Give the backbone structure.
Amino acid sequence: MKILTLTLTLFLLTHSAVAQDAADALRSSMADKNFVTLERIDRDALQELCSKPRTAAIDPEAAASIRQAALESVPEPGNADYLGDWARGEAIASNGRGLQYSDNPDQANGGNCYACHQLDPDELAYGTLGPSLAGYGARGQSPAMLQYTWAKLWNTHAYNVCSHMPRFGAAGILTEQQLRDVMAFLFAPESPVNRNLTP
Amino acid sequence: MRRFSNTILTGLPMLLWALSALADTDGVFDEYRAMFGDENPAIFVIDEGEELWLTAAGPKAVTLENCDLGLGPGVVEGAYAQLPRYFQDAQRVQDLESRLEYCMIHLQGRSAADIHARPYSLRGDLGTEMEALVAWIAEQSRGLPIAPGQAHVQERNAYALGESLFYYRAGPHDFSCATCHGQSGKRIRLQALPDLTGHDGAAEAYSSWPAYRISQGLVRTMGWRMRDCFRQQRMPELIMGSEASVALQTYLAVNAAGAAMAAPGLKR
């Protein structure tokens, strides 16, 4: 991880004149609010690499090392138990709160999956920034499928560098238990994600 | 007219605010819009803004009538549409909010701390001085083409900074403005998200702010919109009129250039 950060830092140094201005401008333009401090302006190597227009090319070597580091950093869930309680997972997927300065830091964060994905086909208030996940369980329940989805939720850049989905596990947005619950919401046959499909 | 509206001003926003509690869903928004037709409740805030412009205030007890919004002292008509721009006296690019702050400090002798104490309403407030002034001044540009300054090097630097801020990914969710506003035809839950990187999306958005927000019963400014989107981005609180706020508004205004101003708009 250290070496990766170093390589990326070297790579970014040559590209970062305006980026540095941007960080400085933000530091002088923002104020701490409740539990949210100016530290949030600081970016890690991945954030810096991905702060580019969608159409801009990403250096393939930097992307490859990000992908590798992301993949290697994904922990296995305890007892290789990927699936928790789908009903709790549904609540987490619907909850958009957490980590905004207007949120109560004593309450558990939500995953806000509905902001970007269709899930339960009967829920009409879903966003379209990400693909529909309705009927996700029908894509298969193999160990490979569970591992892929777990890693995708833990650190989306393991499969798609500069994805616009949050790193729910790696960034500490959701706990392991919450992620297991969300997994169950995606995979359990009784979950509305899979149950409510119109034939 | 102004006296009259001032007396109903105290009661009406309360009523609107009560109504607004019902208006959080889009269906109710449509009904509400049908009910009001072209009658944007911002009209009352506009009147209040004009009144505030003409009211002596601050230690120097003078009005804002000599404030130069870019077209000469006291010229309000068309001023909003040509902002943000570089001001020689302030030696920086300013949006309307930072320009008003400049005039409040330099003409009226007021302190920055005083102006920044509560520039934007909290939910349930009846509106701030800044919101009323911005509503009135923006309304005086209705129908005029958006034409922010880009001749001065600092104005072009502000655009470049705004663009890099738009793509700046940070915070626990790794969001940038582009995460939510970088593609067309997308939505978050049920709310449509304009693509602000292109002319059409930027024009529709930029021309309609400041706006009356039905769900909040208040006029909100573009500076507030920037602050609230940074909140959703899990970032710290954006300071009114700050370099980043002005740069982002410059980026949006230049992308929107040529479209006709239509503010105050009416929003969910």
Summary: The longest strand of chain A covers residues 30-31. Chain A touches chain B through 47 residues (CB under 8 Å).
